[in-house]
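Case study 2.
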Amino acid sequence: MTARRAVRGVSGVGLLALAAVLFAVPVRLALPPPAGARADVRPDPRIVGHLRGLDAGLGRGEASRMQRLFPEGFVFTHALVGLSWARVAAMDAGLRDEALGHARASLAAIRSREGRRPFPSDQSPPGGAFHAGWGAYLAGQIVAASRDPAEARAFAADCVRLAAALDRTPFPPSYPGAAWPADASVGVAALALHDRLFAPRTSAGDGAAYGPTIQRWVAGVRARLDPETGLVSHAADATTGTAQGGARGESLVLTLRFLAEIDPAFAREQYGRFRERFVSTRYGLPVVLAYPAGYRGAADVDSGPVIWGVGLPATVVGLGAARAVGDAALAAPLDRELEALGMPVVWGGRRSYGFGALAVGEAFLVWARLTPAAPDAGFAPVVGAAWGMPVAATSGLLGVLLLLLARRVLWPRSTSVPETSRASASTRS
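Prediction:
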């Protein structure tokens, strides 16, 4: 009997906890989520807490665990956490030293033996477009915050190697014989960052060291758009750069996030088409589709989970793309949605989402939130004023049902005859 009561107690407490999570969803939909950059240009403390939680996870080997789930999980996790810390270092002088320390540790991890292992070194650029691009971009963001001369020289050397590869083809391979335009966009963004930091400027606007390379790359991308959608393709022929695989949500949002730093006009043009074909709603919530509207496709290692046509990673990173091009009409409700459904938990000053089950997903969310927001470009609303009501009502109803179920589990009605009554009946007989 004691063991049965213990099991019943644990089950009841679990139901109560789940009910509390459901009741929190409507509240979080109504409250403002962590802001990427507040009016005083200081990072929201909740974002810093989230980064500290991610760093604790990195110390436990979470990046290595992500590598077992995704082909680039180790580098992605470290790159995104490092970039977020570099952004914090640039925004907050009080956190600068701590933030730079974490960002440098992530860069060292990317360039460690474990970080390099999945990427053949005999490629151009060394390690391939993915590894070289993310490493260089993170190195550049660290230099932007530190202005350290030695780090600046190392970043400049990275850019020389990237430019040499990009001058040969707009989409250098990430693996032998396999190229993805989104991977190339990271390296091009690193070159654009280099020029913003170091290139001499004149009244005519020339003098950019990598301006010609960037212009040729943009022209090459324009000439190789997916013919069906007019958008940057998911994959490309590693030799010719010809579009392959059509346009995909998860690669588009990454490309758009970086394209906004490379060529803002081209980014806005591509973003408008993306918004028409990939931005939709499900049950009143704004989402980014994994495949263009009207198309069906299976989930794979690139798309991540696809539910009801929604690309979950694409929706998270879509927040960063929306902020980068000034689509406040999508970014604001998307941010609230991710905060409400992410089930954030705070413990010991650290913040985690989804019970810390997927570090790379959390890292994408923090990085997206820290994307510098462009001025509002006046995009049309994606959702109405009461967009969160269906989810809030459903969540509240499920919470009530769980409370009732927990009550039955914890305090069941007794159907047995009390011992005293049994004794009385025996005496009367």
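The two ends are 30 Å apart (CA to CA).
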